[in-house]
Amino acid sequence: MNVYDSARMADVLAPLGYALTEDPAEADMVLLNTCHIREKASEKVFSELGRLRQLREQREARGAGRMILGVAGCVAQAEGEEILARAPFVDLVLGPQAYHRLPEMVARLSRAGRAQLDTEFPAEPKFDHLPAPGPRGPAAFLAIQEGCDRFCTFCVVPYTRGAEYSRPVADILDEARALATQGTVEITLLGQNVNAYHGEGPDGATWSLGRLIRALAEIDGLDRLRYTTSHPRDVDDDLIAAHAEVPALMPFLHLPLQAGADRILKAMNRGHDVDAYRRVVDRLRAARPDLALSSDFIVGFPGETDREVQRTLDVIDEIGFVQAYSFKYSARPGTPAAAMPGQVPEPVKAERLARVQDLLNTQQIAFNRRCEGLEMAVLFDRPGKHPGQLVGRSPFMQPVHVTAPERLMGTVQRVRIDQGQPNSLAGRLVETSDGTLPERASA
Ligand code: 5AD
Ligand code: SF4
């Protein structure tokens, strides 16, 4: 979501004359778009700010003009005042719901010469004030839903991103069409709880995610759709049916489980037990037999025992994930779990994480190996490290390295997988019967 938001901030600032640069030393403005989900991400902000302050001083010493320094995102939302106190040299502090007001903040900064803070949740959603997206490349994000009403006891999102909001269908279709016109082939629909989507349709009815996906699949040039992140409780029949019926919906799903012990899931307020998760997965796999699953896991939640970690390992083993993210529980200020008894010592968390990651890595490598010899539809979305090479993404989100001409960038091609590596695949283009390369294959 932060990648999407950053791109939208660039869209908002473009009319003021700002363009993106890879080199912060050259930047007239640096915005740190921050994440508050775990303490480590949060703490990085202050060390990064220190570094940027030095860059700014060097730049000013060169006579290159002042650098505006801003902090955006969820750390700004949660700790705006603290940022201004700890780093008084910062010019702009804005939460994730305020970035449409960047031009106004920049204007006020130059008028008043004082730092500007905006962490309001405006009554008018920011999406109403954002320009059409600029070019994003072959694979792009599109936020359709934001915020979360689930209140998992470990999670800051409901506090930093606010209550669930679903964008109207017409807005989403417009943004998707604009992306497709500019060459985007694959869209990943985003939301903190994306399958809780319930947006207003052009017909006045409330549309579910399944219905929205069917409408998006009709857009010319959009060959591939994905959505993330979903909650197991909000997978409805219509969404499952979409997995069976919409070929553009890719056979890869990120469906966080968090833990494998029912007692922990309950303490996390996830609203389901392991068996309910298993049933959702069974139904999804019945609809789309080649569906590959990804997940999130937290180890060291307060009160977690060694036996309960074993439950997590057992469930991972049973369900099977082709990739996953796993984290040490991080106590977040203001969340219920931070005040729970039985906080787990860091070294114990580290040891548990190593065990969980070990198993997840083994599963990921095994899946990548199983892909050897298969033919897959690969969307080339970036240049490779070596000349003459392109990197694409498989239907299952694996990066695929292929020797391919530049002109195939942004197209979907059939690729034969030669080698499954731990984090990627290597393959070669499948030639047509007359020996030429196909210009475009379907997803
Ligand atoms: N500690 C560790 N991991 C967390 N996540 C969310 N909050 C925390 C926390 N306090 C993880 C969850 C979620 C992912 C986005 O981040 O696994 O699914
Ligand atoms: Fe956080 Fe996801 Fe739970 Fe919402 S559903 S509170 S975003 S972990």
What does this structure look like?
The chain is of the alpha/beta class and 443 residues long. It has three domains: 117 residues, 3-Layer(aba) Sandwich (Rossmann fold), CATH 3.40.50; 245 residues, tm_1862 like domain (pyruvate-formate lyase- activating enzyme, Alpha-Beta Horseshoe), CATH 3.80.30.20; 55 residues, Nucleic acid-binding proteins (OB fold (Dihydrolipoamide Acetyltransferase, E2P)), CATH 2.40.50. The chain has twelve helices and 19 strands. A five-stranded mixed barrel has the order 15-16-17-19-18. A four-stranded parallel beta sheet has the order 1-2-3-4, with helices on both faces. The mean pLDDT is 95. The site of 5'-deoxyadenosine has 12 residues, from strand 13. Iron/sulfur cluster binds next to helix 5.
